[in-house]
Specification:
Layout: H1 26-41, E1 46-48, E2 58-61, E3 71-81, E4 85-90, E5 99-105, E6 107-113, E7 119-125, H2 126-139, H3 144-147, E8 150-153
Antiparallel strand pairs: 1-2, 2-3, 3-6, 4-5, 5-8, 6-7
Length: 159
Amino acid sequence: MNLHIVLYPNKVLRTKTKKVKFPLTNQERKLIKDMLDTVKHADGVGLAAPQVNQSLALIVVNLESMGLKPFVLINPEIIKASKKKNEMDEGCLSIPGVFGFVPRPEEIEFEAQDVDGNKFRAKVDGMLAKVIQHEIDHINGVLIIDRIKKYTQGKELVK
């Protein structure tokens, strides 16, 4: 089922989320499935629970175009980030029409949990690192408009 994507300036987008407790409820499992459907339908690369009006530390990543199977990260946190940064033009499903260059660490190490509550760590770089950082920002109430160094489109849409 496709969920409604919340748009800026909705307050839920600025709220730090609650950690997800385990075991997951049937409602939380359905939310994950629906978030995966929603991000694919919206042609997005990632979606965080606050973007569908749920204040939970839960994100989904959809990089099928890069050959990765869509996946979920629960209670994700960045543990380490490279000093080397690069900038990429970013947009956000919750702020349509706004794009800009956001400097982010090129490589990150993060910790998260899977749907069974198992903790794991991973080191990622490139586009995957960018998407995960963008979505972790969402669960911390941070938006691209807080990080954009130079707008490429839509600056006038942001008040």
